Each structure stands twice: as C-alpha cells, then as structure tokens.
Amino acid sequence: MSIQMFGQPVSRGVAIGRAVLVASSRVDVAHYFIDAAHAPAEVARLRHARDTVVQEITTLKADLPPEAPPELAALLDVHLMLLNDPMLTDATRHWIEVRHYNAEWAMTAQTDVLVRQFDEMDDDYLRERKADIEQVAERVLRALAKEESLLPQVSHSRDQDGGDPLVLVANDIAPADMLQFKGSVFKGFVTDVGGRTSHTAIVARSMDIPAVVGAREASRLVRQDDWLIIDGDAGVVVVNPTPIVLEEYRFRQRQSELERARLHRLRHMPSVTLDGQPVELLANIELPGDAANALEAGAVGVGLFRSEFLFMNRNGELPDEDEQFEAYRAAVLAMSGLPVTIRTVDIGADKPLDRMAVHELRHEHALNPALGLRAIRWSLSEPAMFRQQLRAILRASAYGKVRVLIPMVAHRSEILATLDALERARQQLQDAGIPFTDVELGAMIEIPAAAMTMPLLLQHFDFVSIGTNDLIQYTLAIDRADEAVAHLYDPWHPAVLQLIANVIAMANGAGKSVSVCGEMAGDVAFTDLLLGMGLRSLSMHPSQLSSVKQRVLRADTARLAKEVGPALASADPAATWLAMNERWAQRSRSA
Ligand code: PEP
Ligand code: MG
C-alpha cells in the first residue's frame, strides 16, 4: 500500500530508492557495508556468535537449580529454538550476502522484520514472542561485540554491484554518525526526529542529497526494502509509490538535475550585484576533505570550518595538537591562499562528544544542553585543550590565510579569557620557535545578548559572523533539534530580523567585516533581504553557492535597502517583503 508522510524539508531534490532501516537497538550497533569478497567471513563471524549464544543458553539451562520454575527452562528452549530458526539465521545471512551489511546490522535488520511480523499477529501469545526474538538478538549482538571485526568497511559496494539505489531511514541519526555516511551509497535520508537546523540536518545538507527530518513515524511505518520517494523540497516521503506517482517524481528528478547543471555553470562568474556591489560567497565545511568541494563550487574562501567534527567518532580519544594542525593545514593548503575561517570547537547541545570523552573531561550529561556548557563555555572550562586547539590553528596560519572564529560569546569575561588564551598560545609557539602568522579573530553572533552589545564585541574582535541557526533558537526559545516545535522556528520573526539588521549595521558602521554563516545564508528566500540589510558576505554549504549567486547577480541592493525598513517594521515581515517585491516585479514587467 502506498502512503505519504510529512516532515521538515532539509536538502533539496528528489531521491528514489529502497529503504535501509537503521533499527534502534538496545545494544550499540555499528552499521557499515562490507566488501563483497568478505561476505563468507562475515557470515562465519555471525555463525560463531550464534554458536556461542547457543552454548551459553545450553549451559544456563543445564545449571538451572531443581527448584527453578519450569517456565524458565521452557523459555530457554524457545530461545534455543529461535537461534536455530531459518527465519532468523538464514534471513540474517541473506542481508550479509546480498546487501553486504556487517553482521550486527544484518542481525538488527532481520530482528526488525520479525518483530513487525509478530506485532501484526492476532494471537496474543504469539505477539508476546517478539520479546523473545529481541532478547535472543541482543545476546547475539553482545557476542558479536566481543569478537573483533577484522573486515574493512567499504562505502561503495552497492554502486559497484549496480544494485538498486538505497535511502536511509532511522528514528534519529547523531551528527557524528551522519558524518560517517558522507560519501556513502545512500541517495537520501529520512529521520523521525529533528528540526531543519539540527546538526544532523546540516550534515545531510552538506552531503547534498535529498533529506527529510522530523517525519515522526517513518522508521515505524517503513519496512526494509520498501521503495521510497524522498522529496527534499517539500518535506514529503512517499512509501511504495504507485507507478504514476513514481513517474511524476522521476520527471521532477530529471528537471532538478538539469537545473543543477545549469546553475553549476555560474560557479566561476564573479559574484557582483546588478548595481556593482561585490558579494563574498564562502563555504561551510565540516572536514578538511570538504575544501575541495568548496573550491569546485566557486567559493572564495571557507567562512566556517566546524572543527568539532574532528573531535567526533573517536572512541573517547580527542585529537592532539599535531593531528589538529595536520587537519587545519590540509584545509588551508587545499584552499590555495583563500581565507579559511576555523571555528574553535563547538561541542555540546546536539553535538555531544562520545560518552568516554565526556567522562574523561569530567562533564556529565547536562540538564539542558542547548543552554549548558557548550562552545566557548566548554573551551574555557578546559584551558589546556583550548590552548592546544589555538596553537594548532596558529601553526596552520604559516601555510595560508587563517581566521579564528569563536562560537557563542556573550560575556565580556569570555572575550577577555579568549584573548588571554590566544596570547598565551602565541607566546608558547614563539618560545618554541614554531612559525605562525597574524590571524584575525572573529566572534559568532548567536546569542541575542551578543547581538545587542555589538560595541563591546566590535571593540575586541576583527570580524563577526552571524550564526542564525542559534540566534533564532535563542531568540525564540525554540530547540532547533526538536521537531515538536519546528513550526515555531521562524527566521522571519521580526525580533530575529531586527537583531540581524542591527548586527550588520553596527559592524558596517565600525568598518568591520560581517558575514552570515547560519542556514539562512544558503536559503535563497533570504538573499535579497540580507543584501538589503547591507550584508556583503555569506557562508553556506558548497552545494547552495550557485543558486545564491544567481540571486546576487539579479539583485539591486539600492532598491532592496529601501524596502528593508518597512518590512522590518511590519507585524508580518515575510508577507510585507514578498508583497513589495511582487509589486516591484510587476512594475518592471510593465515598464
Ligand atoms: C549557527 O548557529 O548558525 C551556526 C552556523 O553554527 P552551528 O549551526 O554549528 O551551531
Ligand atoms: Mg551555532
């Protein structure tokens, strides 16, 4: 049966493929593709884990005390029976051999299929048996966890095999896990939870593949292998579409590919408005390897390198100074002399470190992480770690133009402590005779308090960059990662726009550079408005650069500037802005 689901559109375009469900399991399970040649070894690993569990349960049963209730022995028999049932064993092997899932993924995928079948049974007794399946699967997963996986992970086996395209469906994907899917075979993503500017959504957008988040019931309603359409423009997911719907979406897919190819041709054109104003278009990156995409897309620098992604997926180890230096230098060298703005680590909120690292650094899970010890607050609470990062960034400055960006500053004490840490890092390098050059220091404007105390920030920083994702979150008190309040996360809210306009005006007035690096920068719905406010620098995902450039090339900033005032003063800036621009378009058509 074909069904439709709705969520938040995250990344443009249409993806069509078979669903791969990343089932949530009580045991932490790695999901990766194995090389086809290693399938027999992976099957053997699974068989070995299963045999271990059979042995465990047999021993458990033999050791049952005589007074143990007879149901217990019967239950263990059921578990032994399940372990020998082809529904579990053969089918799990099938996911490994045909889909090239690793053994843990295959086990959770098949458990998920069986649990759903049991859920649909009319017989209460049989329905209850699903708990047994889950328990048995959990035992096998634990046995697998004890065995070292010797198999290399590959991300392209499906494409190499020419199989059906795959799309990923999950309840939630942590930003760190999403990062692992970069460059993988998946053509699209759907998650049950998340908002448009959650970091999971941001990483999906940086991968430039269609994605929908906050689709609530998706991972419950979609089944392994269902055909799915993911409409990343409208936030729609169609499960098992009819042939007519499928044809319609295939047509749209082709149209959107043609449009992309057309926009791509703009990448080497200078970004200048109709009235001759140059507009700097920069790229947001997560890893040094993304710099190549930035250049290819025509970016004239990196406006935001989210360095915290270097700190994720590390089993508790944090990158040391040399490792960080290598990563920053790689990005700087890849940009061949163009500026690279490295943001100091923004850990916390929806980007936690993995558990071990957090434990190591003595910070337990915060009550309200978005308002807790994140970004510069966290860095200042770990002075040695912070200085290490600053030294690594400074060292990279010997290889190109580097700028340092500080996330979430709001207090004078934070500014002074940051300046002090930077000075100490400089001193340490100087004493050790390690080369570095002068770097500009910038502040992210993400907290309303910072947007309202611009003179203080401008006094200490060389440039500012507006993080609209957080600025909106903190102005409207909306958790950006919570789909339940996603409808209230409104960049058009007059309070948000007034804060942004104020920051741009104050920075321009002080002759200091100001950029927007939040998701608003890559959304063409806001390009004219931001230009009208006086903004001349935007930083976004490389994939968004050409469409924004197209808007810049058609913009008349003198006219737009006149329209900003009335829009900001109105109760409904979106409607006012749209109406004014529609009137202008009509006048120019009839002229
Ligand atoms: C922002 O808050 O707008 C921003 C760019 O930073 P991040 O999305 O990483 O929090
Ligand atoms: Mg932010």
TrEMBL record:
Signal sequence range: none
Residue span(s) of domain PEP-utilising enzyme C-terminal: 261-555
EC top class, as a word: transferase
Biological process per Gene Ontology, one example term: phosphoenolpyruvate-dependent sugar phosphotransferase system
EC numbers for this chain: 2.7.3.9
Highest taxon of source: Bacteria
Active site (record annotation): H199 (tele-phosphohistidine intermediate), C517 (proton donor)
Any one Gene Ontology molecular-function term assigned to this protein's record: phosphoenolpyruvate-protein phosphotransferase activity
One Gene Ontology cellular component: cytoplasm
Major localization listed first in the record, in broad terms: cytoplasm
Alphabetically ordered keywords of this record: Cytoplasm, Kinase, Magnesium, Metal-binding, Phosphotransferase system, Pyruvate, Sugar transport, Transferase, Transport
Protein name: Phosphoenolpyruvate-protein phosphotransferase
Taxonomic source organism: Pseudaquabacterium pictum
